[in-house]
Specification:
Elements (H helix, E strand, L loop, with lengths): L29 E8 L3 E9 L10 H5 L2 E3 L2 E5 L5 E4 L1 H14 L7 H14 L11 E10 L11 E11 L10 E6 L16 H5 L2 H9 L4 E5 L7 E4 L3 E6 L2 E4 L10 H12 L4 E3 L4 H10 L2 E8 L3 E10 L2 E3 L8 H14 L10 E3 L1
Enzyme class: transferase
EC number: 2.6.1.42
Family: Belongs to the class-IV pyridoxal-phosphate-dependent aminotransferase family.
Length: 354
């Protein structure tokens, strides 16, 4: 056990009603913080009031983007307790991102303890209505005041918390996705498989173009041949073609989503024909023309499972199935959220209750 002092906020914020919750706009009263320097490693873990950071204008993260982050959720379960969905999987992924960005790996045991203590302090912020949760954002930034490209010698790790509603305004309703071959997100050997801010900054222009045309998100193709499906801006993507559940493989340019892994595990447990393989946009178009494209859905921490009722590819409009919520999309969503909210038995041990 680590000694984690708690410095409580003097003035507490008014908590919003569940009906007022959007995504990522409100934050709780406290945050978990750990510092790093070369002499002491990761040290001084503490819980302190949520508030502004003091950074010099030359701070390296502002210029070179050496930073990583994660996103997970805590839920108000049917029994009234608070549960965190697969926290250790998310912390392990944070350290995989750290390796790629030359950031010292953080002690997962210490962070896990800090997260639990922070959630206990902030438990009244966890909403209880359907499609609400407490979003958990761990992140690391480089903090040397230095202009020059090299790894920083100092870092700051933080966890902030945000009560949220549904990620997409549509909620659990089908969304429209635009496929782009004008822009690329990542290539193998790059940083597409880790959670670092630059990946998301690079996606904004394409996402704005899609929104102007009435689409919710962008579906990226591979960065070399511009033909193979990769992922959506904030989700991994699944296709159901002629009874087979298909998602692109993790080959170094796609983020290994924890919800993606959850869907794959559940799908195989149910005995569905489930494969991870390269899938071209042309194959998707052909499956649509032949009537074999049954469903498309995304998976991610924020939305959990998000059905897709339209893909726009050049002059082609692809509508899977009957254009509504697919049977499997609904089934995966109900099953995973059922585990998260304590409505179903957690046979795989994914939820940690406080």
């Amino acid at each position: 056990m680590y000694n984690i002092p708690v410095y409580k906020a003097q003035n507490l914020k008014e908590k919003p009603a569940d009906s007022q919750l959007t995504f990522g706009t409100r934050f709780t009263d406290h945050m978990f913080v750990v510092d790093y320097n070369v002499s002491n490693g990761w040290h001084n873990p503490r819980i302190e009031p949520y508030g502004p950071l003091s950074l010099e204008p030359s701070t390296m993260v502002l210029h070179y983007g050496q930073a990583i982050f994660e996103g997970m959720k805590a839920y108000r379960r049917q029994n009234g307790k608070i549960g965190i969905f697969r926290p250790l999987s998310y912390l392990a992924r944070l350290n995989r991102s750290a390796q790629r960005l030359c950031i010292p790996e953080i002690d997962e045991t210490m962070v896990h303890q800090g997260l639990i203590e922070l959630l206990k302090l902030e438990q009244d912020w966890v909403p209880g209505s359907k499609e609400t949760s407490l979003y958990i954002r761990p992140f690391i930034i480089s903090t040397d005041p230095y202009l020059g490209v090299r790894p920083s010698n100092t870092y700051k790790f933080m966890i902030i918390l945000s009560p949220v509603g549904a990620y997409y305004p549509e909620g659990f309703k089908p969304v429209k996705i635009m496929v782009t071959d004008k822009y690329v997100r990542a290539v193998r050997g790059g940083i597409g498989h880790v959670k670092t801010p630059g990946n998301y900054a690079a996606s904004i222009l394409a996402a704005e173009d899609a929104k102007k045309q009435g689409y919710t998100q962008v579906l990226w193709l591979d960065g070399v041949e511009l033909k193979y499906i990769e992922e959506v801006g904030t989700m991994n993507i699944f296709f159901v073609i002629d009874g087979q559940v298909i998602t692109p493989p993790l080959e170094g340019s796609i983020l290994g989503g924890i919800t993606r892994d959850s869907v794959l595990q559940v799908s195989r447990k149910w005995g569905l024909d489930t494969v991870e393989r390269r899938l071209s946009i042309d194959e998707v178009v052909a499956a649509s023309h032949s009537g074999k494209l049954q469903e498309i859905f995304g998976s991610g921490t924020a939305a959990v499972v998000s059905p897709v009722n339209e893909l726009k590819w050049r002059d082609e409009t692809i509508v899977p199935g009957n254009g509504g919520v697919g049977e499997l999309s609904q089934k995966f969503y109900d099953h995973i959220t059922g585990i998260q909210y304590g409505l179903l038995t957690d046979e795989l041990g994914w939820v940690e209750e406080l």
